[in-house]
């Protein structure tokens, strides 16, 4: 017996349209939107059924190689939802929006961020690469402008002159990063998703997101690594 996927209603379609126009949405916003869509289109609403509601949309997006994915902000641990194109790698997807040398600068910034110890790269280090681009060298001023656009488009986040990958970028590019940076990319030992900003155990080398570190050690009398049980030497955030 083939079980029919739950029907897409106008509430589902409206939810998808709004999410498409935002690209990414914080969990509380997505919950509000879920409620509003159900009310407008007089569809049964249950406040704890957002993930079911989304999986109905995902069933219908499958033939289009699209999917709404849930991810976590590495800063505060809040859930986010993003619409992901499964048919393309992130670089081909970005190719329609940026020139070749802009994409090369993004790749180089990503290399620095992923191979760094704390998941950040300084603007100075990124800008120093601008005149070494193989596609077409960039002046510093021009590169600064491009970085600004990457932040506006939510591929990068910037804090006090330090850049990291935006939550949207992590959700969309997780598979790409895990397969292209196998030596340095790590998954969080607690939530098992890609960890860019993380703390690492000095003894066994496992990594944990800062929000996961905070949550995990909240219940422990003394901080010990969940993997090797050695003392956790990093400062608990």
From TrEMBL:
Residues 188-229 form the RING-type domain. It catalyses: S-ubiquitinyl-[E2 ubiquitin-conjugating enzyme]-L-cysteine + [acceptor protein]-L-lysine = [E2 ubiquitin-conjugating enzyme]-L-cysteine + N(6)-ubiquitinyl-[acceptor protein]-L-lysine. Keywords: Chromosome, DNA damage, DNA recombination, DNA repair, Metal-binding, Nucleus, Telomere, Transferase, Ubl conjugation pathway, Zinc, Zinc-finger. It comes from the Eukaryota. GO terms for biological process: double-strand break repair via homologous recombination. It is found in: Chromosome, Telomere; Nucleus. One of its GO terms (molecular function) is ubiquitin protein ligase activity. Pfam families: SMC_Nse1, zf-RING-like. GO terms for cellular component: chromosome, telomeric region; nucleus; Smc5-Smc6 complex. It is an enzyme of class 2 (transferase). Its EC number is 2.3.2.27. Gene3D superfamilies: 3.90.1150.220, Winged helix-like DNA-binding domain superfamily/Winged helix DNA-binding domain, Zinc/RING finger domain, C3HC4 (zinc finger). Belongs to the NSE1 family. Component of the Smc5-Smc6 complex. RING-type zinc finger-containing E3 ubiquitin ligase that assembles with melanoma antigen protein (MAGE) to catalyze the direct transfer of ubiquitin from E2 ubiquitin-conjugating enzyme to a specific substrate. Involved in maintenance of genome integrity, DNA damage response and DNA repair. This is Non-structural maintenance of chromosomes element 1 homolog. It comes from Uria aalge (Common mure).
């Amino acid at each position: 017996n083939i079980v029919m996927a739950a029907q897409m209603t106008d509430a589902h379609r409206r939810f998808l349209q709004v999410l498409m126009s935002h690209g990414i949405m914080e969990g509380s916003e997505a919950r509000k939107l879920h409620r509003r869509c159900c009310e407008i289109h007089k569809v049964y609403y249950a406040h704890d059924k957002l993930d079911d509601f989304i999986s109905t949309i995902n069933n219908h997006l499958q033939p289009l190689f699209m999917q709404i994915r849930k991810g976590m902000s590495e800063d505060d641990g809040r859930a986010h939802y993003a619409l992901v194109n499964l048919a393309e790698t992130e670089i081909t997807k970005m190719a329609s929006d940026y020139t070749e040398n802009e994409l090369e600068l993004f790749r180089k910034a990503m290399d620095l961020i992923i191979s760094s110890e704390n998941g950040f790269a300084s603007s100075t280090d990124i800008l120093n690469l601008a005149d070494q681009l193989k596609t077409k060298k960039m002046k510093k001023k021009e590169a600064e402008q491009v970085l600004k656009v990457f932040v506006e488009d939510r591929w990068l986040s910037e804090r006090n002159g330090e850049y990291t990958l935006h939550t949207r970028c992590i959700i969309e590019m997780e598979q790409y990063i895990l397969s292209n940076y196998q030596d340095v990319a790590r998954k969080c030992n607690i939530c098992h998703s890609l960890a860019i900003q993380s703390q690492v155990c000095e003894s066994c080398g496992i990594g944990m997101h800062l929000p996961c570190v905070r949550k995990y050690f909240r219940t422990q009398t003394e901080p010990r690594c969940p993997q090797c049980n050695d003392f956790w030497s990093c400062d608990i955030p």
